[in-house]
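Practice problem 4.
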């Protein structure tokens, strides 16, 4: 979850964790099923952090092993209040590829949830 209080100075004063863009980042969600999340944690996924949906789809279509493994092992895909998949019913590769095609310019972030 990323929040953006009024100014960077305000964010720093409140001692919020900031990302490289100066956005306040929290790994706690009061309404969540999980206790916390971490960025990535799968072997090699760091190489895919922040790439665009188009880049990820292109890598998948070129049969890039990392892209194929990462997409194939996804449990949930989330976007602006919408999600597909879950604890017992993983999202399908077809759903992921469809969302990548529909959102070509957006960036992809890989998270690992813990309870």
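Answer key:
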């Amino acid at each position: 979850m990323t929040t953006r209080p009024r100014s960077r100075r305000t964010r720093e004063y409140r001692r919020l964790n900031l990302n490289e863009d100066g956005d306040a980042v929290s790994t706690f969600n009061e309404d969540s099923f999980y206790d916390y999340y971490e960025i990535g944690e799968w072997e090699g996924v760091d190489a895919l952090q922040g790439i665009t949906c188009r880049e990820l789809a292109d890598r998948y279509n070129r049969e890039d092993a990392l892209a194929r493994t990462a997409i194939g092992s996804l449990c949930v895909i989330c976007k602006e209040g919408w999600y597909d998949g879950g604890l017992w019913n993983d999202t399908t590769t077809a759903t992921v590829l469809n969302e990548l095609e529909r959102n070509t310019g957006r960036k992809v972030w890989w998270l690992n949830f813990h309870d």
